Amino acid sequence: MPANWFNRFTKWWASSGTLQDPSDTQAAAGWSYIGQAPPTIEQFNSVQQWNDQKDNYLYGQMASVFTWGGQTASDVNPNTLRDAISGKFKTALTASTNYYVDLAGNDTTGNGAVGTPWRTLQFAVNWITSHIDPAGFSINLQLKTAGTYAQVIFSIPINGMWMITGDKLNPRNYIVKNTDGPAIQATQSIVVVAQGLSVEATGISTGQDYKTLGYGLYASRSAVIYYDAVALGPCSHGQMVADNGAVIYPFNTTLTTLSVYGSSPYMITSAGAASITLVSVTTTFTGSPNYSSAIIQAGAVGQVNATTWPTSGTVTGAKYNVFLNGIITTSNAGATLPGSTAGVVGSGGQII
């Protein structure tokens, strides 16, 4: 590149020349001593290199801001630094907004628009969290085409509500699946709506320290997951799980539907003062799913509200397991809960 004033910011004068630093006395006097003790070429080189070193240091500071803000330094654009800084501020929404995720999308070149969707839910969540201020509005992650999508974790609170939507008329066509942990996880007081989709989760099936179990919908640490037209597929531990003060609740109140097509040790698990509600949720079991431990489990002050829970289809397994001050509320002490055998009540648990 030919030398010019702009690219000189990245270079030093006399970088290949011989240098002789002026003394402090000479530097303080400047070139006023010319005629008595003229500066040498080496001193001139040194002074000019000092200036370039200082310019290079300041330019380096700006260049790091350019890179941080996704801009390229330019000698013709006086707003590059401004644009780099302003680009790091979040864009505030003025209405609830759809962003699109598609199996044919691209996390590198996509921007979440309907024509240029992202590839994965997790990238969409991470990007939106970094760049968008919901300002109290909802952010809907619309699954654009049918298929199996990778898992997603919502872990950073925002000023708004997340939604994941497939097709409420065909939830089995849109699967969110994890092969080693939760399919959809919400934590840290986040609010998420899951609708028109299926969840499947494999992985370890019994508790181990710092290991995540195979959960379908998993709410923890005061998070809230609303659900509607969700299909529960095979999970290695539990299909709907809430703990540590979290809530899982029907999104469409009495019109909420739920379908089950896969087996799991548990369908519903609530613990640690968490709550799961099934009231008036029309639930259909297909394919005779089996629950090896219990259909509903409530323990450690967890609560499950299953009064007036309309179900249809065949399901096998114990109706309930309630213990350690857990509570399962039903219309008649669990007699009409789905399942092929009676449940177990122990250790201060209650089923009413």
Structural commentary:
With 352 residues, the chain is α/β, with parallel strands linked by helices. The protein has 2 domains: 80 residues, no CATH class; 206 residues. It is built from 4 helices and 26 strands. The chain has a 15-stranded parallel beta sheet that branches. Strands 6, 9, 11, 13, 16, 19, 22, 23 and 25 form a 9-stranded parallel beta sheet that branches. Strands 1-3 form a two-stranded parallel sheet. It is elongated, with a radius of gyration of 31 Å. 38% of the residues are buried. The model has no long low-confidence stretch (mean pLDDT 92).
Short description, anyone?
By secondary structure, this protein is α/β, with parallel strands linked by helices. It has 4 helices and 26 strands. It is 15% helix and 34% strand.
Main beta-sheet strand count, sense and barrel state: 15 strands, parallel
Average predicted local confidence, pLDDT = 92
What is the helix/strand order? Answer: HHHEEHEEEEEEEEEEEEEEEEEEEEEEEE
Percentage of helical residues? Answer: 10-25%
Domains (count): 2
Please state the CA-atom Rg, rounded to the nearest Å. Answer: 31 Å
List segments where confidence is low: pLDDT < 50 over at least 5 consecutive residues. none
Overall number of strands: 26
Number of helices, where a helix is a run of at least 4 consecutive DSSP H or I residues: 4
- Give the end-to-end Cα distance, rounded to a whole number of Å: 81 Å
Task: List key phrases describing it.
2 domains, alpha/beta, 352 residues, single chain, 15-stranded parallel β-sheet, 34% strand, elongated, 9-stranded parallel β-sheet
